[in-house]
Amino acid sequence: MKMRHLVHFAVSCVLIAGFVRAQSKPAGGFEQLTSLVGEWEGTSGGGQAAHVSYQLVSGATALLERLQSGKEPEMVTMYTADGNRVVMTHYCNAGNQPQMRTLPITRMSKVLSFNFVRATNLQSPEAGHMDHLLVTLLDKDHFSQAWTWKEKGKVSTIVFRFARKG
Question: How far apart are CA 65 and CA 94, in angstroms?
Protein backbone atom coordinates (compact mmCIF):
# COMPACT_ATOMS: atom_id res chain seq x y z
CA MET A 1 0.00 0.00 0.00
CA LYS A 2 2.78 2.43 0.90
CA MET A 3 4.61 1.66 -2.35
CA ARG A 4 1.50 2.48 -4.36
CA HIS A 5 1.18 5.89 -2.63
CA LEU A 6 4.86 6.57 -3.27
CA VAL A 7 4.45 5.77 -6.97
CA HIS A 8 1.37 8.03 -7.23
CA PHE A 9 3.26 10.82 -5.48
CA ALA A 10 6.27 10.47 -7.79
CA VAL A 11 4.09 10.44 -10.93
CA SER A 12 2.19 13.51 -9.68
CA CYS A 13 5.44 15.40 -9.07
CA VAL A 14 6.67 14.63 -12.60
CA LEU A 15 3.36 15.73 -14.15
CA ILE A 16 3.22 18.95 -12.10
CA ALA A 17 6.85 19.79 -12.92
CA GLY A 18 6.13 19.31 -16.63
CA PHE A 19 3.02 21.48 -16.43
CA VAL A 20 4.87 24.27 -14.59
CA ARG A 21 7.74 24.13 -17.09
CA ALA A 22 5.28 24.29 -20.02
CA GLN A 23 3.40 27.19 -18.44
CA SER A 24 6.55 29.17 -17.67
CA LYS A 25 7.98 29.11 -21.21
CA PRO A 26 7.19 32.55 -22.67
CA ALA A 27 6.19 33.22 -26.26
CA GLY A 28 9.06 33.78 -28.71
CA GLY A 29 8.08 37.42 -29.16
CA PHE A 30 8.27 38.00 -25.42
CA GLU A 31 11.72 36.36 -25.33
CA GLN A 32 12.83 38.76 -28.05
CA LEU A 33 11.57 41.78 -26.10
CA THR A 34 13.53 40.69 -23.03
CA SER A 35 16.71 41.45 -25.00
CA LEU A 36 15.83 45.12 -24.42
CA VAL A 37 16.50 44.92 -20.66
CA GLY A 38 18.68 47.90 -19.74
CA GLU A 39 18.94 51.62 -20.47
CA TRP A 40 18.48 53.25 -23.89
CA GLU A 41 18.90 56.80 -25.24
CA GLY A 42 17.38 58.16 -28.41
CA THR A 43 15.25 60.73 -30.13
CA SER A 44 11.64 61.12 -31.14
CA GLY A 45 10.59 61.91 -34.69
CA GLY A 46 10.38 65.54 -33.63
CA GLY A 47 14.02 65.49 -32.55
CA GLN A 48 13.33 65.53 -28.80
CA ALA A 49 15.66 63.55 -26.57
CA ALA A 50 14.12 60.35 -25.28
CA HIS A 51 15.10 57.79 -22.66
CA VAL A 52 13.63 54.34 -22.18
CA SER A 53 14.49 51.59 -19.72
CA TYR A 54 13.40 47.97 -19.51
CA GLN A 55 13.31 45.73 -16.47
CA LEU A 56 12.08 42.16 -16.02
CA VAL A 57 9.61 41.97 -13.13
CA SER A 58 7.24 39.44 -11.54
CA GLY A 59 9.63 36.52 -11.74
CA ALA A 60 10.67 37.46 -15.30
CA THR A 61 7.09 37.00 -16.55
CA ALA A 62 6.58 40.70 -17.36
CA LEU A 63 8.72 43.39 -18.97
CA LEU A 64 8.39 46.89 -17.52
CA GLU A 65 9.08 49.79 -19.90
CA ARG A 66 9.56 53.36 -18.63
CA LEU A 67 9.56 55.94 -21.44
CA GLN A 68 10.45 59.62 -21.03
CA SER A 69 10.43 61.98 -24.01
CA GLY A 70 11.33 65.66 -23.76
CA LYS A 71 9.36 67.33 -20.99
CA GLU A 72 6.41 64.94 -21.29
CA PRO A 73 5.44 62.95 -18.18
CA GLU A 74 6.94 59.48 -18.00
CA MET A 75 4.81 56.68 -19.42
CA VAL A 76 4.87 53.03 -18.38
CA THR A 77 4.10 49.99 -20.51
CA MET A 78 3.92 46.37 -19.32
CA TYR A 79 4.53 43.51 -21.77
CA THR A 80 3.64 39.88 -21.03
CA ALA A 81 3.37 36.60 -22.92
CA ASP A 82 -0.11 35.29 -23.65
CA GLY A 83 0.38 31.90 -25.25
CA ASN A 84 1.92 32.57 -28.65
CA ARG A 85 1.09 36.29 -28.51
CA VAL A 86 2.55 39.21 -26.64
CA VAL A 87 0.14 41.57 -24.89
CA MET A 88 0.82 45.00 -23.50
CA THR A 89 -0.89 47.65 -21.44
CA HIS A 90 0.27 51.22 -21.95
CA TYR A 91 -0.26 53.60 -19.03
CA CYS A 92 -0.50 56.78 -21.08
CA ASN A 93 -0.07 60.33 -19.83
CA ALA A 94 -3.43 60.99 -21.56
CA GLY A 95 -4.97 59.18 -18.58
CA ASN A 96 -6.17 56.07 -20.38
CA GLN A 97 -4.70 52.58 -20.60
CA PRO A 98 -4.77 51.05 -24.09
CA GLN A 99 -4.30 47.29 -24.24
CA MET A 100 -2.79 45.83 -27.40
CA ARG A 101 -1.58 42.44 -28.58
CA THR A 102 0.32 40.85 -31.41
CA LEU A 103 -1.05 38.29 -33.79
CA PRO A 104 0.14 34.75 -32.97
CA ILE A 105 3.93 34.60 -33.27
CA THR A 106 5.18 31.38 -34.84
CA ARG A 107 8.80 32.32 -35.61
CA MET A 108 11.40 34.88 -34.66
CA SER A 109 10.89 38.28 -36.27
CA LYS A 110 12.62 41.63 -35.96
CA VAL A 111 9.24 43.38 -36.03
CA LEU A 112 6.50 43.08 -33.40
CA SER A 113 3.19 44.71 -34.29
CA PHE A 114 0.75 45.44 -31.45
CA ASN A 115 -2.89 46.10 -32.37
CA PHE A 116 -5.48 47.83 -30.22
CA VAL A 117 -7.83 45.51 -28.31
CA ARG A 118 -9.47 47.79 -25.74
CA ALA A 119 -8.71 50.59 -23.31
CA THR A 120 -9.64 51.37 -19.76
CA ASN A 121 -10.60 54.91 -18.73
CA LEU A 122 -11.34 55.87 -22.34
CA GLN A 123 -14.25 58.34 -22.42
CA SER A 124 -15.41 57.22 -25.88
CA PRO A 125 -13.98 55.33 -28.88
CA GLU A 126 -13.34 58.73 -30.51
CA ALA A 127 -11.26 60.02 -27.58
CA GLY A 128 -7.51 60.23 -28.14
CA HIS A 129 -5.55 57.05 -27.40
CA MET A 130 -2.60 54.98 -28.58
CA ASP A 131 -3.96 52.60 -31.19
CA HIS A 132 -0.92 50.72 -32.51
CA LEU A 133 2.71 50.05 -31.66
CA LEU A 134 5.38 48.74 -33.99
CA VAL A 135 8.63 47.64 -32.32
CA THR A 136 11.54 46.99 -34.70
CA LEU A 137 14.58 45.21 -33.26
CA LEU A 138 17.38 46.34 -35.58
CA ASP A 139 20.32 44.69 -33.77
CA LYS A 140 21.38 44.07 -30.16
CA ASP A 141 22.15 47.78 -29.63
CA HIS A 142 19.47 49.54 -31.72
CA PHE A 143 15.68 49.43 -31.97
CA SER A 144 12.79 51.70 -32.85
CA GLN A 145 9.20 52.19 -31.77
CA ALA A 146 6.43 53.67 -33.92
CA TRP A 147 3.50 54.72 -31.72
CA THR A 148 0.21 55.52 -33.51
CA TRP A 149 -2.23 57.93 -31.86
CA LYS A 150 -5.90 57.85 -32.89
CA GLU A 151 -8.39 60.62 -32.15
CA LYS A 152 -11.74 61.37 -33.82
CA GLY A 153 -10.90 58.98 -36.66
CA LYS A 154 -7.54 60.62 -37.46
CA VAL A 155 -4.20 58.94 -36.86
CA SER A 156 -0.67 60.23 -36.41
CA THR A 157 2.53 58.30 -35.75
CA ILE A 158 5.63 59.26 -33.82
CA VAL A 159 8.80 57.20 -34.25
CA PHE A 160 11.45 56.82 -31.57
CA ARG A 161 14.93 55.54 -32.40
CA PHE A 162 17.04 54.16 -29.57
CA ALA A 163 20.64 53.03 -28.99
CA ARG A 164 21.76 51.04 -25.96
CA LYS A 165 23.30 53.27 -23.32
CA GLY A 166 26.85 52.55 -22.22
Answer: 17
